[in-house]
Amino acid sequence: MTQLVIGQLLNGVIVGTLYGIIALGVTLTFGLTGVVNFALGAFMMLGAYATWYLYDVVGFPYPVAVIGAVVVVSIFGYVSDLALFRFTRGNLVNGLLVSIGMISVFEALVLAAFTTTPKDLTYVLPGALKVAGIVLPKIKVAVAAVFLAVILGTYLALTRTWLGRAAFAYAQNPEAAALMGIRTGRLQTIVVVYSTALAGLGGGLYASMYSIEPTIGSAYVLKAVEAAILAGVGSVLGALGGGIILGISENIGSVFFSSAFRDAYGLVFLILILLVRPGGLFGDRS
Amino acid sequence: MKHAILVGLLLALAVPAFIHSDSVLAIAVYGFMAASLAVSFNLIFGFTGQLSMFHAASFGVSAYVVTILVTTFGWNFWLAIVPALAIVVILSLIVGTICFRFKLKEFYFAVVTLAFSEVLRLITLNWNSITNGSLGITIVDTPKIWTPSGTFAIAGGVAWYYLTLALLVVVYGVCSRVLKSWIGRCLAAIRLNDQLGETLGIDVFKYKLLGFAIGSGLAGLVGAFYGFYAGFVEPHFLSISLGLDIIAMVLLGGVNSLIGPVVGALVLTALPHVIELSAELRIALYGSILIFVILVMPKGIVGLLTSRKHAA
Amino acid sequence: MLLDVKSLTKRFGGLTAVSNVAFGIERGEIIGIFGPNGSGKTTTLSLIAGILKPTSGVILWKGNDISTLSPFEVAQQGLVKTFQNPQLFPELTVVEHMRIACHLHIKRELGINRLRTLIGGMPVGLDRLLEQKIDQVLALCRLSSQRNEQAAALSYGGEKMLGVAMGMLCEPELLLLDEPASGLGHDEIANLDAVLRDLKSHGVTLCIIDHKVGFLGRLADRSIALHHGAVIASGKTSDVLADESVVAAYLGKKHA
Amino acid sequence: MSRLTWARSMLDVSNLSVSYGKQKVIREVSFKLEKGEVVTLIGPNAAGKSTTLRTLAGLKKSDRGTIHLAGKDITESSTVDRVRAGLVLVPEGRQIFTKLSVQENLIIGAYHRADRDHASADLERIFSMFPRLRERRDQKAGSMSGGEQQMLAIGRGLMSRPTLMLLDEPTLGLAPIIIEELGRIVRNLAHEGLTILLAEQNAMMALGCADRAYVLQSGRIVTSGNAKELSETTEVKQMYLSA
Amino acid sequence: EDVVKIGQIEALTGATATYGWMSAQGTKVAVEEINAKGGFKVGDRTYKLELQQVDTRGEPREATVQFRKMMEEKVHFVFGPFLTNVFNAIEPIANQNNGKFLLFAGATSAHAALGKPDHDYLLRTWNWDAGSAGFGKLMVDYLKKLNTRKVAMLFQNDAFGKTAVDIYSALLKDAGIELQVELFEPGTKDFSAVLAKLAAGKPDILFPGYSDAVLYDIVRQSTESGFGNRFFLVRGSIGPALKNKDAIEDYIAYVPKYFEGAEKTEPKVRAFIESYQKLFKREFPYDQAPLCSSSCYDHVYMLVEAMQKAGTVDDVAKIRAALMSMTYEGMWRIKYDKTGEAVFGFDVVHVRKGGAIERVPYDPTKE
Ligand SMILES: Nc1ncnc2c1ncn2[C@@H]1O[C@H](COP(=O)(O)OP(=O)(O)OP(=O)(O)O)[C@@H](O)[C@H]1O
Ligand SMILES: Nc1ncnc2c1ncn2[C@@H]1O[C@H](COP(=O)(O)OP(=O)(O)OP(=O)(O)O)[C@@H](O)[C@H]1O
Ligand SMILES: CC(C)C[C@H](N)C(=O)O
Ligand SMILES: [Mg+2]
Ligand SMILES: [Mg+2]
């Protein structure tokens, strides 16, 4: 029993890092452009398909395929910012609608190119690590490690660099930020593209763990929004923490109670946390 | 604007005289119900500033309660609406009290209401003995109304057309009365600056809750009818995607008006049936239209037509 | 005693913003609060208005402790506070602000009968009366010409006056004003002075914070001065302003 | 004035007109600032002082007219480019970053500077100007009192080492003793070569520390001249100095 | 030129689209082939087929509107729906149109409606899991032969999942096999927790959900983390087994036809695959397509044959009678039983460690 619980605890952490990486994108985009980009799920899906295509069809080595996918998705992100999100900045409501529209468009693109038949990437890193009776698939451990590294790197970059300072400042008061000489438009573009790149990376690594279909993104973006909120919008490490809390509560909940209520376990947790801290676990109490 | 709405209503009344297509009437019926949902949602969202994700739950719970009372316990349809609405209102008061007492705002509020809504959906989905789980419940009864010349079963497109049009008028009317009253002003104050509102003597908690409960209750009213027209209820009624659809309708039509959501709902309900293309192109076009409309008309369709902002 | 504040203390973490403050306000007077920046003036008024909850102490309003009430309950009891940083309802016009500010009036007037207005609409008489009152207050506050403009289009001074105007429409017994004159020009200050004296003559009690010593000095019957959260002087305004510690901490040599 | 006549003005505004929608707020306003000068723009409420400053900072588009900064036409430049060229606005109503600490607010002021990583000396300078800020360096800026926030906004503006600083009602909410101090600070800064444009209601303080003054009324400059002389004129005395 | 309209009502996009999409492709191949050959003759007239395919996105409400529209447009032959919830939603409207058209439904729940009054329109094209001729019984017998004592069922919590759990719990109970059930939310990708939980109950074999997407994930995660390596399923393909061939112990699947094998031995299958590739210009999706696309393909041909036998293209009663009395020899041999349930042959494929495949053909039409 303890092995079962510990194993699922760890698995929860791993699954949580995936929520976390998308949540980071959600949090950053929201903080800086005032838009909850639901399309990040679709970007993640694009990343997964691009990776599959580059790796399984074209035959690039996996890391190259993932990097390629991140580049492709970033380009999509850049174009979407240029053509769409630039016009919805600071407008939560319209940004939401545009991102919902984009989900349909991306889904259609992928359907037209690859059909609804699920794709399953050739295994990149088969096998599992066995420690003290706990079995963890190697690929999951590797993926989680990459996500952790990226999130921590982002955290350091945001807290230690001027770009990060500018971002925080902008998020609070765009006009004052401009008065400080912060190129706000460029900053927003960088953040939008970076967030989509994170989603692309999420998708690229996702593809090595799970089968992919055109609709995979929607579930993850919801989880990511939940994680971001649970943590408190704007908190980088919080996005990770929120993701992990969700991941663990779902996995542990499914072990002890019916798995049919899997999604509910994280949500109940979320409600409880927000009741104690209405601004999110890591956010300010407002 | 007022005249345009009246003309629209008159036209709507005349439609069944000219159009006999069952499928068109069906789109209209679903459109009216979607519009009712969107109008009631906008009371909470557009006019009070609370992005509730609980609307689908209010709708779905009521649909289920009415259905279960009628099909399992043999209640009269009209009678069953009463407890259904009571339950929805009580649920929304509970959820609202929790959220507003703890001062959850904006996206925090959205996600917590979404969480409650999902929990309710999962309960509906898994409470097999009462709700028949994922299969949902098939409804064969039809609501009847009593007229001096005998009872009349509401069956067929035309009857439902008028019934749901009346439903829309009722929902619209209630929202409009509420918004024009002092309550509407309190709601606007809450939406725009609740701290200021509070120092002006407005019980922010009470009015937030009131707006939320009225909106949710109206959604429940729609739910009561919906299942009986569709012929079934299923757990999907409580799904997030329905909530997102409603948001899209409201935004597309225009948040700052009462009529906007009606327009948005009718357009979005009809749109998929109007686009006759291959499946992929169809959803691509649907998405593109959403994007395009909002970029060209950032205030929604009605927002573009009327430049004057909503007044307190 | 209309309002009686006793040993009021407010701590933010390690910082004591308001420390053991005590003072009373009699019906019909104008009381001034002076003090250097960060001395706890705004915090004190926020505590009275229910916006902040005191760490300790009591606030007696007509003999009842109101320190645990919410802001709206305090307002309903007849105590209304304006904001130091103008607070507005963005998007709404000036007159729409005023209508919202009529909330308490309508509530007092109609009570539960408000429900009837859901069907029948507002009683015509009341409606007309309110509109008249709104016009009157707008005129007093020199906002008539901007009646239908969005509040966001007001200049800073205009925003401040709108705050005062809304406070007046609440018909408070005690109006707490947080720096009403800051950002106002000479003319406007003179006008404000007149408006406030007029209010006083209609029986409204006023408690005012301001750094415009000339303005508040002339207006206030009695004053208190705060420093580091504590009362350092109180009494007749002229005495307070002449107090050595007040001069040293607040006024500086020029005013000495 | 001791400046060489051929030197370009620090700021040269000519025929500036600004409107909100159809409403004209600034009409054909022209004025100049020489390097190291303190110039004040006084006028009653709604005269258009803030609007003028916001237009100079590039936050508001002008209808007509030109703005030259040290000889360079910046009429069409973005706010950021103006900041980078040395023009900084300390906006009305403070506009601080409420969730950042006092110190973080100040540091971000140095954002556009090439030597921004070495701004700690300036930080010290600001702290000695406004000791209250040093005391509260780790407090969240949003929870500071009104006057404290005003000090912060001014300090933050100074952190960017501007060559031209626009102050919009800096005395707003400040205690008399601090206003007095602010007057000294402004003079000192000018002494160090900073050019300052001061929009003020508080004509007493403004005229007290400015070299020259312009009086703005309903969007027009109605009087201008030496600050000291102006403060002697009975009209100005009556209008502005008795508060 | 005369046309016969065929409608098809399926989810072509969205989360539940896999089956509907592939059904639609099979129908399309058949229709295109028939039209390319110049149509078909009934009596002395030549007809072409006109195919209307609508996308329900898996939403019952959409389907009801679309179905109404088809009825208005006098479409006499409607293929689909494959999804139980969609079928349940359109059933009442279909009943009102009884006698005016034929519905070739695939949904499991359609089984229960067969032969009821008002249901003369209903034929069920895919009898895989219910009824006496259904495959469930056979599969359970197979398990019994393998000495299975306990089965773990892991199904998606949707309308079909519930139906399937009901069917199989009864069958397994009759066979005296213990059953452990867990349901998962649609869209689930990480089955680790639920698999760990099931594994703790020590079942002999896992009976996982029905779509290829979840099969790939479940088989991989189950074997990789050591939760179990024996699988039994009545749907989907053997793709997951082959992909994890060294990690599985047994993988017993009902596959209507093992296409990769059949392709080599059966010219009709070969022709179908080629036709598919030519029409859609892409690889043939072996994973799930055989299940639905080939079946729809056959049923279109069968319908055409029935029209020719009945000598009419619009007298649906006659055409139905012709369908019920014939045996069609296509990729499959197909008959209908007296309720309108399709009876046809299929394969039990047993994949063992290393990838060895044993195939047991089964043909109830011969009995
Ligand atoms: N929420 C808070 N958290 C921490 N400190 C606070 C908070 N609110 C106020 N303070 C501090 O308490 C002190 C008193 O603040 P207050 O706003 O009452 O001052 P004030 O007398 O109104 O000053 P001013 O004249 O500048 O408006 C200040 O030093 C301020 O920084
Ligand atoms: N955003 C806006 N939209 C429309 N009109 C505006 C806007 N902002 C300011 N105005 C108008 O422009 C005029 C000048 O305003 P401005 O804020 O520049 O005055 P000011 O001189 O700074 O006054 P104060 O001393 O009160 O701050 C005022 O009449 C004001 O109502
Ligand atoms: C995907 C399929 C297995 C669906 C199933 N036939 C149903 O009835 O819903
Ligand atoms: Mg203050
Ligand atoms: Mg100004």
TrEMBL record, chain A:
<keyword id="KW-1003">Cell membrane</keyword>
<dbReference type="InterPro" id="IPR001851">
    <property type="entry name" value="ABC_transp_permease"/>
</dbReference>
<keyword id="KW-0029">Amino-acid transport</keyword>
<feature type="transmembrane region" description="Helical">
    <location>
        <begin position="6"/>
        <end position="28"/>
    </location>
</feature>
<comment type="similarity">
    <text>Belongs to the binding-protein-dependent transport system permease family. LivHM subfamily.</text>
</comment>
<dbReference type="InterPro" id="IPR052157">
    <property type="entry name" value="BCAA_transport_permease"/>
</dbReference>
<feature type="transmembrane region" description="Helical">
    <location>
        <begin position="35"/>
        <end position="54"/>
    </location>
</feature>
<keyword id="KW-0813">Transport</keyword>
<protein>
    <submittedName>
        <fullName>Branched-chain amino acid transport system permease protein</fullName>
    </submittedName>
</protein>
<feature type="transmembrane region" description="Helical">
    <location>
        <begin position="134"/>
        <end position="158"/>
    </location>
</feature>
<feature type="transmembrane region" description="Helical">
    <location>
        <begin position="92"/>
        <end position="114"/>
    </location>
</feature>
<dbReference type="Pfam" id="PF02653">
    <property type="entry name" value="BPD_transp_2"/>
</dbReference>
TrEMBL record, chain B:
<feature type="transmembrane region" description="Helical">
    <location>
        <begin position="283"/>
        <end position="305"/>
    </location>
</feature>
<dbReference type="GO" id="GO:0005886">
    <property type="term" value="C:plasma membrane"/>
</dbReference>
<keyword id="KW-1003">Cell membrane</keyword>
<keyword id="KW-0472">Membrane</keyword>
<dbReference type="Pfam" id="PF02653">
    <property type="entry name" value="BPD_transp_2"/>
</dbReference>
<dbReference type="InterPro" id="IPR001851">
    <property type="entry name" value="ABC_transp_permease"/>
</dbReference>
<dbReference type="GO" id="GO:0015658">
    <property type="term" value="F:branched-chain amino acid transmembrane transporter activity"/>
</dbReference>
<keyword id="KW-1133">Transmembrane helix</keyword>
<keyword id="KW-0812">Transmembrane</keyword>
<feature type="transmembrane region" description="Helical">
    <location>
        <begin position="81"/>
        <end position="100"/>
    </location>
</feature>
<feature type="transmembrane region" description="Helical">
    <location>
        <begin position="209"/>
        <end position="229"/>
    </location>
</feature>
<protein>
    <submittedName>
        <fullName>Branched-chain amino acid transport system permease protein</fullName>
    </submittedName>
</protein>
From TrEMBL, chain C:
<protein>
    <submittedName>
        <fullName>ABC-type branched-subunit amino acid transport system ATPase component</fullName>
    </submittedName>
</protein>
<dbReference type="InterPro" id="IPR003439">
    <property type="entry name" value="ABC_transporter-like_ATP-bd"/>
</dbReference>
<keyword id="KW-0547">Nucleotide-binding</keyword>
<dbReference type="GO" id="GO:0005524">
    <property type="term" value="F:ATP binding"/>
</dbReference>
<dbReference type="InterPro" id="IPR027417">
    <property type="entry name" value="P-loop_NTPase"/>
</dbReference>
<dbReference type="InterPro" id="IPR003593">
    <property type="entry name" value="AAA+_ATPase"/>
</dbReference>
<dbReference type="GO" id="GO:0005886">
    <property type="term" value="C:plasma membrane"/>
</dbReference>
<dbReference type="GO" id="GO:0016887">
    <property type="term" value="F:ATP hydrolysis activity"/>
</dbReference>
<dbReference type="InterPro" id="IPR051120">
    <property type="entry name" value="ABC_AA/LPS_Transport"/>
</dbReference>
<feature type="domain" description="ABC transporter">
    <location>
        <begin position="3"/>
        <end position="253"/>
    </location>
</feature>
<keyword id="KW-0067">ATP-binding</keyword>
<keyword id="KW-0813">Transport</keyword>
TrEMBL record, chain D:
<dbReference type="GO" id="GO:0005524">
    <property type="term" value="F:ATP binding"/>
</dbReference>
<keyword id="KW-0067">ATP-binding</keyword>
<dbReference type="InterPro" id="IPR027417">
    <property type="entry name" value="P-loop_NTPase"/>
</dbReference>
<dbReference type="Pfam" id="PF00005">
    <property type="entry name" value="ABC_tran"/>
</dbReference>
<protein>
    <submittedName>
        <fullName>Branched-chain amino acid transport system ATP-binding protein</fullName>
    </submittedName>
</protein>
<dbReference type="InterPro" id="IPR052156">
    <property type="entry name" value="BCAA_Transport_ATP-bd_LivF"/>
</dbReference>
<dbReference type="InterPro" id="IPR003439">
    <property type="entry name" value="ABC_transporter-like_ATP-bd"/>
</dbReference>
<comment type="similarity">
    <text>Belongs to the ABC transporter superfamily.</text>
</comment>
<keyword id="KW-0547">Nucleotide-binding</keyword>
<dbReference type="InterPro" id="IPR017871">
    <property type="entry name" value="ABC_transporter-like_CS"/>
</dbReference>
<keyword id="KW-0813">Transport</keyword>
<feature type="domain" description="ABC transporter">
    <location>
        <begin position="11"/>
        <end position="243"/>
    </location>
</feature>
